[in-house]
Amino acid sequence: MTDSVTPIRKSRPGLGRGLSALLGDATGETPAGTVSGEVIGVRMMAVSALSPHPDQPRRRFDEEALEELARSVAERGVLLPLLVRPHGKDYQIVAGERRWRAAQRAKLHEVPVIVREITDAETMELALVENIQREDLNAIEEAEAYRKLIDQFGHTQEALAKLVHKSRSHISNLLRLLDLPAPVREMVVEGSLEMGHARALIGAPDPLALARRAVEGQLSVREVERLAREAKPGAKGKGGGGTSARNADIEALERQLGDVLGLKVAIAHGDKGGTLTLAYSTLDQLDMLCQRLSGERI
After folding, report:
1. 3-class secondary structure for 16-43?
2. CA–CA separation, 282 vs 280, rounded Å?
3. Could you tell me the residue ranges of all domains in the chain?
4. What angle is formed at CA 261 by the lines to CA 172 and CA 169, rounded to 5 degrees?
């Protein structure tokens, strides 16, 4: 292991700087996020000296994507340093476990890292933000991370919304998914059931049976919402004319888009077209939205 330190190039200026704002620059600039501690800089560290964090929000790693990254790492090396913290005699990964796993598969002996003193709460925050920014978490993993930050570290839903640049309603909707039966949550983790479908099952008399029906019949979110509504005690049968049905479809689409973006979505539709409105409350949310719309990786 070498002690040589090389500077990191500065991130582009702009609205929000995403994860780099939390990590800070290796040049010694104080980070703009909630993370404390002094940035030591980039150094090479033995792969064997690193271990993953046991409370990493991300539980599943796509094998095909990991193999693709491993091939890239074998050819070009690890381009983005891992963020690690001292842990006993070695170091624990705060952000970058996927790169560490790919480096192992590529049979690399060393990887670039940034070493920082970071608390348990800050470690959870950074791991959560990194995975959300890269869209690596499924809805249940994201919800479990929020729940842990609330229960163990006293975060409020408002604070979490600011941390991940999403709406408070998005945080609230995700947390409600944890009330679903374990088999239904596992369907979401496996990818056979999408967040919109799972959200429609909340409050249904038998969410597991309806979830299985949705998967087997490849039902739309709108169809699952209708079946869940009809299954409730005292629910009326099919009703409403064409206008109410169309409005219900638009409302379902607004919820689906809101789930994907983590922002409030409004659709106004008419005979000659309409408008799609995305509401943001911070510049960081706007920055993330612009990057997603432009296809730029965060």
Report:
1. CCCHHHHHCCCCCCCCCCCCCCCCCCEE
2. 6
3. 19-133, 139-294
4. 20
CATH of 139-294, one of 2.40.50.100, 3.10.180.10, 1.10.10.2830, 1.10.10.60: 1.10.10.2830
Question: Which H helix or E strand runs over 279?
Answer: strand 273-279
N-term to C-term CA, the chain: 30
As separate numbers, helices (DSSP H) first and strands (DSSP E) second, the chain gives: 13, 7
Question: Is-contact 105 115, C-beta < 8 A?
Answer: no
* CATH of segment(s) 19-133: 3.90.1530.30
- Identify the active-site residue in 38, 75, 97, 158: 97
Mean pLDDT value across residues 3-13: 37
97 is known as an active-site residue: yes
Q: What is the pLDDT of residue 65?
A: 80
What is the band of 264 on the pLDDT scale with cuts at 50, 70, 90?
confident
Closest by CA to 136, choosing from 77, 191, 217, is: 191
In whole angstroms, what is the distance from residue 55 CA to residue 122 CA? 12
Q: d(Cα 157, Cα 172) in Å, to the nearest integer?
A: 7
Give the C-alpha separation, 124 to 132, whole Å: 12
**Dihedral sign from CA coordinates of 117, 120, 122, 124:** positive
Q: How far apart are CA 223 and CA 207, in angstroms?
A: 14
Ranges of beta strands (E only) in 75-223 are 82-87, 90-95, 110-115
Q: Is the pTM of this model over 0.70?
A: no
